[in-house]
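Researcher: Structure prediction, please.
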Amino acid sequence: MSDRLGKAVVVIGAQWGDEGKGKVVDLLTDRVGGVVRFQGGHNAGHTLVIGGEKTILRLIPSGVLRAGVECLIGHGVVVSPTALVEEIGELENRGVPARERLRVSMACPMILGCHVALDKARELARGKDAIGTTGRGIGPAYEDKVGRRAVRIGELASPDTLRERVETLVEYHNFSLQHRYGQQPVSVDVVYEECMRAAATIVPILADIPARIHALRRGGAHLLLEGAQGALLDVDQGTYPFVTSSNTTAGAAATGSGLGPTAISEVLGIVKAYTTRVGAGPFPTELDDDVGLQLAARGNEFGSVTGRPRRCGWLDIVALRRVLDVNGVTAMCVTKLDVLDELEEVKICTSYEVDGKAWHETPVGAEAVARCRPVYETLPGWKSSTLGARRFEELPPAARAYLDRMQELAGVPVDIISTGAERDDTIVLRHPFD
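Model: Predicted structure follows.
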């Protein structure tokens, strides 16, 4: 046993998701013994580019491409067994020994076919008021967890009792599908057979994740805790009801993994150099013009899992400050700086105007945020490439000024700057494990 406990660093998205968390987690795994995914489901995608080869991860933690790093899926994650098996297969077909590196909490609630059917039926019924879910059953699965109806993934190891549990849950949801939404019922046999096909792959990699986390730390290994989505999609702190169904903020790293909150050393907030949002919901700095289209094109702003286009806008410091406070963010990593390279000028939202009055705080809830009108500070663009820069001094002066102003307004230092999709296209001013 080591005399010194390993550090635990939480990585969160500090906007509405799609900030580039996967690349940053992958970069930092050179110094860790384990990466823990603590919430969400396969509705989130993390894109990694290494040696020109792109990998999109949905459930499996971003450290899976590093030898010697344990990848742990905590009980705060809702797991589709079929999606997990598919993702494992994709990696192993490329020579990545996913099952050797991966362990899954026995307590993860499963996403089953009835959850997917219910998710889609609800969105269809909402019509123009649809939330904009991915239709992958995430929300209904979390409802069953809280309602104490969930079938947990550890139950795959008990086929006899699993059949009874699946039947009870599917019949419960079939009532709503048929009598509330007018949809076809889901077959109990089909759902059970899908579970049993997945069991052969999943049961051998089930584990007690909290015990493994604490064993790693006691052995002196560092840990990264990785969330999905972004803090403004948190079911409590986000632009409700246009949010995801889990807690995406740093506090969930403890509850979704089994790590004690006092063990968290730092919280790294990933911030895109501008702002994007997928799906419905308020977005004060959204650009519905040529600049917005230019950001989307240069940033390749399409969801890595769903392919949905992302809405684009200027950096919103008011919303960002709220996220930094709520998450206790100790440092920022700024991504996609190169997307701004061709602009004559760049803008930062420094406050809102609400009903004709200046407002410097982020209101809670979608209705309040929708009333906000951004007030901007304009800075000169740099009109030169930052792509692939590896040292801060290589950045154009105006780009450095933009980053300096960002951290001045936010009150949190910028420690890492991502200058491209490749793992090594990164400027590290301070490493969180130093």
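Model: The chain has a mean pLDDT of 92.
Researcher: Thanks, that helps.
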